[in-house]
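Sequence in, structure out.
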Amino acid sequence: MNKFALALCSALLIAHSASALAASSTELAIKGLITPSACTPTLSSSGVIDLGKISASDLDEMGITPIGKRTLQMNVTCEAQTLMALSSTDNRAGSAYVNGLYGLGLINGDQKLGYYDLTLMRLVADSIPAQVIWSADKGATWENKIYLMPGTWVSAAALGGPLQPIPVKEMNVDVDVGIRFAPSAELDLSNEVPIDGSTTLDVMYL
């Protein structure tokens, strides 16, 4: 092998080794912002909707049984005007009879008792009526929707204005909760069954 070929082979080996070393590393980055103001959400009735006792015989055997909407008032108070949104987490994930909504718990570990939805109505931002806007991509884009589904965000926008969140110091909104039960023929109702819906509502800073 001549000196040129030997040098070329050596250079290729060095380049390959450097490439292999470079490919065996990665980077961890931590980013974010610390906001100077905080927002506190509260719900009327301590966030509890008590349906009392419902007779199994009152449930439709083959179809869905709606029991009407229950309404809670939600207040979000911030220390200063803040760009924020609300998000939700279904604490009974996997128990909703209809996918994409909130569950009411399971019977015998696999029978889905029912589901409920959350609709935000009559939103007021800093004493001025506003519209509800909705995002499925963590605030990258917004639409004119009033439903808060697990994993989505909702915020306030000016009436008649662009579909973009506005900063608020205080927001009040009615949370309409629509509750429905699965067909009783699909459920073991031979014993008392707890209605066990639970959702966490979080403030997300934009």
